Here is the input.
Amino acid sequence: MSRLCSSRFERAARKLGWMRIAGIDEAGRGALFGPVVAAAVILNPKRRIVGLDDSKKLTSERRAELAPRIRDHALAWAVAEVDAQRIDAWNIYQASRQAMTAALQGLTISPDYLLIDAMQLDVLIEQKSLIKGDARSISIAAASILAKTHRDTRMEEWDAIYPQYGLARHKGYGTPDHLEALRRHGPSPLPPTFLRSGARMLLLGCWRDANFTANVLTGEDKMAVEHSLSRRNAIGNQPGRNIVRVFSVSIAIALVSVVAVLVVAKPAIPDSATLLAATPPIGWNSWDAYGETVSEADIRANAQWMAEHLKSSGWQYVVVDSGWYVTNHSAGTNADSAQFSLDAYGRYTPAVNTIPSAAQSRSFKPLADYIHSLGLKFGIHILRGIPKEAVRRKLADRRNFLSRRGCREYV
Amino acid sequence: MPIAGTSFHAADAANTSDTCPWNPFNYGLDAGKPAAQAYYDTLAQQYAGWGVDFLKVDCIADHPYRGVRFA
Here is the structure.
């Protein structure tokens, strides 16, 4: 069998009557940083693109030449990415599949046949999985080029924000200079949506674990087998789907399905606010062990322990629960006789006898700064509503106001 | 007490008939009053200034449904 990258798989599919053949591939599966990116491309058989091949065999300059031509000549294309947080939550194999599925769903023309690089997708579309498909099928090669160039652009964007890691150079793969930069600068400035667990393990000195992770990644590639589903296409012939050409940037950013995979046709800094969280918030809440009696020293000690022992497993929130504004805890939990620390605008402020660093109107800022310095996030408990005390004091305010204006008759 | 940056007072925001069944500290806010939104806006500004990343907002989910949003 020829190993050259050609249109033989596409031609064979067309002989069987398939019309809209999408190639699908991913990039970034073996990286320590950043998203895994997948692309889906339906090439136009009437517009040949010379030089399509496995993106890894091409220079970055050649990829940069080919990518716009692919986007211009293709009948449809879409790119999807799954961020590092979700890669850690799902594992890289599932994350790659989700990215591929999302890219597929991002196509504005429904394909009726899929050529996929070493993966099967759980969709009712006729599909063929090809080992080293990016070097054998021009459709998969085109997808590999779009995925790779998209991911590289993304890494360059991150590099502009965090230049100390050399991301533009190594693109987030575990090259020696990359690992050295990680050790030297630490991971803390990097958002969790960006740094994968393999990198965190490296930083903890768990070299064997990190190598194990890398081995798993390569192993999974080998595990995939050539497979062709005989099920008929279920979504390719849906009425109402426009058979139109996708012009290069019309898709912009769209969220696909409940898995919150970001699908883009245009590079952009990821907007984490638009993504669903992969896990509930994970962290420590002061109530469970301390109730209202927690002290600032307790909070700091627990935060420090969390940073040292649990942060690497995804723990990040340090939450000060109810009672932080009560000045007389001896009154008991939720007591009517509680007294409060309030500012001049009827807002609770931390009681200085509980949070000493809050003195001189610094409130929670010093404690929050400390929690942040550990690379953790800071949370507080509040009760819905407004302090009764603030409402009660309105009368006093009004009395003072009126008396200042000489309106004693109204008091 | 005044609500920061407004001419409202705390009493303009409160719904004094709405209290938490297990905690006596607060009145609920009357979601129909602009002062209520103004008060929460000042809380959000204050918390952002402190560097708060996460809020655990209590006494929200254990009431029977009353057809209006709790505030």
